[in-house]
Structures are given as structure tokens and as C-alpha cells.
Amino acid sequence: MDSRSHTHVTAALRLCLHALLAGLLALVVVRAVGEGAADTAAVVAVTLLTAALYAAGAARSSSVQPKDSAQPRASVQPGTPAGAWWLGGLWVLWAVLLVLSPDALWVAFPLYFLQLHFLPMRWALPAVVVTAAAAITSFVVHRQEIEPGAFIGPLIGAAVAVATVLGYDALFRESERRRQLIVELVATRADLAEAERTAGTLAERERLAREIHDTLAQGLSSIQLLLRAAERSLPENAPATPHVRAAREAAQANLAEARSFVRALTPPDLEHGSLAAALERLCARSTAAELTVRFAVSGTPVELPTPYEVALLRTAQSALANTVRHAEARRAEITLSFMDTSVALDVVDDGRGFDPSGAPVPERGTGGDGGFGLPAMRARAGSLGGALSVESAPGQGTAVALTLPLPDTEAERAA
Fold first, then answer.
1. Using the 8-state DSSP alphabet, how is residue 358 labeled?
2. Of 41, 133, 191, 394, which alpha carbon lies 20 to 30 A from 167's?
3. Alpha helices, H only, 300-358
4. 216 close to 257: Cβ distance less than 8 angstroms
């Protein structure tokens, strides 16, 4: 039993044990005085000494040691030398009392519980057996006869004490295990809630960035191009020229502000470096003892709009997550290729593969854990005018390729 558990049940059991021992010691004294035995004085003296020793140990067991005590006193607790010596002293006084009075054998019942509580189980069970044998021997010696009750009573008491202590100990361990499980579940639920909030925040940031880029930024860019063309077509001294120039400059300023909003809503992995650096960090995080992930860049890198970088990064994260969770691969490689008119991302692994036309691979995002699956990757690619292809076969690995057309560089520079 764990002495550190101060529940109402253990407090009630402790009080019952105190009352039981006090009542049985009082019974010994009353019977000795009532019968007028020759050794009544010795019985009373040993009984009082036993009660005093028990009371002192019980008080020391329930007291708390001050933290700033210069000389820590011995604590009568289960598993401590002081507790063992205290229990041994009680047993010796009880043995003396057994010799003086046959009624002292009833004190064996609370002693059973004390031994089971204060001693390790490998020592407690032999101690209970010795105590029961002493009680039986005392009855036979004092009564000068052998009766079934002399054996059955102490043995049944010992069995009940052992079963009670072991049963309570098992219930306590089960209760403690469930308490720890509840604590872990509460902590896990809090972590999941925080992860969901973070994922929702990131998803909303990406959506806003995409919407701003695809609507406001593109509209302002078109307005600026039209105003620039109108400004060039007007004569130098035309009355409308200053107004067209002012409108173009206002559109240009608002376009710059819209793009700053898009940059502020960029995913955290893209905030502190380029797309290539973000993909390299992703490979480093995913590399483990059972999986090696490599990253390579092909062609001459060019600056990409934020929605392009977000689409490429999220596709790489989703495809690599499927590789880690489902492919059982040993090697994977992410390649970012810059070509004349397009940019491509390839995620290839040597895992178990699957049949794209049959049962699709379980996708991250189709369950309850969030993320982007193949439909989401295809939708993202389609929104940017690109295409997503998946090549795989059972036992032959998987290759996911995302191709996006590069934006009109002249229009971008003009914007």
C-alpha cells in the first residue's frame, strides 16, 4: 500500500484500526481485572506499555517532518527502519502479553494489518504466519486443550487481512492508473485543441493570402498596366495626363500594400528564407533512422509569387507526410526544378506504392488529423493553372509531380 495516498478511505481505515487495537487491549485489561488473576498487575503494565508504544508510533507516522529541521527525526513510515523497529517492539510486547493472558491472542488481528502495511510483502506474509502461529500456541498453552476454533479463528483472520490488503492495494493501483490516464487524456486533448487552432490559423492565413493575390493584387496590377498604357497613348501636355499618372501611382502604391499583406500572411516556413531553404528544412525534419530524405534544386532559381511558393511547399509537405506515414520507404527525394516557362516539384520514394486507379493511398487530410490530400493538392494546382500527376504501382514506390506555369515575367516587372 502507498502511504502517500491520504484519501478519506485510508483515513477511515486508519481510525478503525486504532479503535480495534484500543478495544482489544481494553478487553485484555478488563478480563484480567475481572478474573482477579495473580499476574493482573503485570498484564495491566504490559498492556499500557503496548498502548503507549502504539500511540507514539501512530503519532509519529501521521506527523510531518519540518523542512528546516536541523536534526531530522526518524519517521515511522512503511518501508523505513524506524517503522520496522516500532512494529518489532509491538510484536515483542504482544508476545509477552500472550504469555500473561490468553485474551491477548485477539490482538493478533490488528497486528496482521500493521505487518501487511509496514513490511514489504515478501516479509509481511511470513510475519503474519508467525503471528497466527503464536496466537494458536498461546491458546493451546493457556487452555490445555486443542479445539478446531483455536486454529480456525487466527487462520481465518490472517486470510481475511491478507485478502483485504491485497484487494485494496489492487484497487488503489487501478485507480492511480486511471487517474494518470485521465491526466494524459486531458493533456492530449489540450494539445490537439492547440494544434487544431494553429492549423486553422495557418489555413486561414493561406486562404487570405491566396484571395488577396488572386483578386486585389491581380486587379490592381491590371489597372496599373491599363493606366500605364493610357498614359503612354496620351499627348505629353494633355489635360488628362496628370490625372492618369496620379491614378497609376495610387494603383501602384495599393498594389505594393496588397503584396505586403500577402507576405505577412506567408506560412512560417517561408518567413525566414526562400522556398528552397524551406524545402531543405522539411527534408531535414523528416529524415530519421528508417528514412533518408534528400533535396535537390534543378535549373536557375527565380523569384516566385507567394501563392506559388505556398502551393509548392504544401504539396511537398503533404506528399512527404504520406511517404512517412504509409509508404514504409527507405529513401525519398524532393526535387525543385526551374524551367523556362514552368516550375516543377517532384516527390519520389521507394516505398510499397499503391494503385492510383484502385484503392487510393490513405491521405493525410482525409481523416481527422488535418492536412492536404491528393484532391486538395490537385485543387491548389488547378487554381494556379498547373497540374498534379501521381505515378505509383504496388511495390514500385510513388512519384508525385506538381507543375506550375511561370507567371508572365514582363507583366510582373511592369506591375
1. S
2. 133
3. 306-322
4. no
pLDDT digits (tens, 9 = 90+) for 364-397: 333 333 334 678 788 888 888 899 999 988 888 9
Cα→Cα distances 162→86, 125, 168, Å = 21, 8, 10
Dist. CA 5–CA 62, nearest whole Å = 12
390-412 pLDDT per residue, tens: 998 888 899 999 999 987 643 44
List, in order, residues 6 or more apart from 382 with CB less than 8 Å away: none
Q: How far is the C-alpha of 5 from the C-alpha of 130, rounded, in Å?
A: 29
CA nearest 294: which of 365, 346, 253? 346
Q: What is d(CA 331, CA 296) in angstroms, rounded to the nearest whole number? A: 14
d(CA 295, CA 92): 78
| Length of the chain measured in residues | 415
In the chain (415 residues long), the average pLDDT of successive 10-residue segments reads: 51 81 84 77 86 82 48 60 82 86 83 82 84 81 67 79 82 87 87 77 72 71 82 83 84 75 63 78 84 91 83 87 84 93 93 73 38 71 89 90 78 41
Class of residue 177 by CB neighbours under 10 A (exposed 0-12, middle 13-18, buried 19+): exposed
Q: What is the pTM of this model?
A: 0.40
